[in-house]
Amino acid sequence: GWGGVAQGGGEVTLEATEVAEALAAEVGAPWLDWGAQLLRGGSLVARSEVAAARPVVAAAASLADRLGGPVASLSTALTEAHLAATSGDAVACSTALAHGLGVARESGVRLWFGQPPAVASHLMAAALRDRIEVEEARGWVRDWELTAPATGEEVAEWPWSIRIETLGRFRIIRDGVAVGLGSSAQQRPLDLLRAMLACGGREVRRERLADLLWPEADGDAAQRALATTLHRLRRLIGEAVVVRPQNGMVGLDPTRCWVDAWVVEALLAPILSRRHGSGAGMRQRVEAAEGAIDLYRGPFLRATGGESWLLGPRERFHGRLLQAVERVGRFWAEEGEPERAIATFERGLEIDDLEEGFYQGVIRGWLALDRRSKALVAYRRCEAALGEGLGVEPSRETKALLHQSTPLGRKRVDPPRRRL
Fold it and tell me: pTM of this prediction?
């Protein structure tokens, strides 16, 4: 019946709202009429029947104006936002969200009549992403115990109960407070968490984890140790965060747990795909990749032990990031924006100062700006880094760029010799 919308049962809800509409007309109950119209409109939106939903939601909005009160006002506004989001109207969605969450903030009411948490989760994510009534939206997430939409899109302001930092340092933040990781009793659960993350973090085979952490134990003993350590890990970071083993797999719940490496990977994936596109679509991918590069704080799980099984994931992550830097820098160079190209390659050199191609990108950028002295300085930095770090000189291609950095009609400046 009337619980159909809350349970996601669109067909049942449409039948129930028809009955409610008839009853409201018979007894002359405007609140009942409003509720029936709102639930019917929400059900049609959930079925993506946008054209049919528009007049129904409009009728509910008209009734809400006559009724007054925060429940009718904010419930209707959020349903209008849901309709706009489903139809692809971002402006109308933002306007309705701002109105509805504003009413909620002023009234202290956080009730969206008849709507399921999954819909509220997507709208609160949109509000946080666009910085609309941020504190109020975060309050809805906490009060409704919403889980983040499983879209892979980063929502920076989402109030995650658990945040795990793996880039440059290993840190767990639970409900805004860093978890102390110094206790010897925590080391094995933390080893398990690192092993999960090194294997992707989500769906990881139990046998794989047992082999990594207990390589010398027989199968049954390793599985018993894994079960015990999983229990201890749940106590450390939260029962709901660690997914219980199913079909031989275990991992973290991405709707309840934020991991910086996951965010970076999601932002890098479009630009690193074989079809990375062109035009406006490519610019969006480049800007997403820039967000990933900015989020990078150092090697994946660097501040941990010397486990050999971490080396492969760490190197793969590092390599993908450098590939993204190269593509982003090249994009800005080809777009005729040398300043942005230089900034990108300089950020890449902060990540890996032995990447000769990034020095070349910086030199080319300064040459494009006719800043030849800057280009020469970049060459000298390249020579010093390669000499000290690898014991080699810059390549012929890099040296050829140096010739371009010498103004025509003036004596060429030879590259400085590295002292032995």
Answer: 0.77
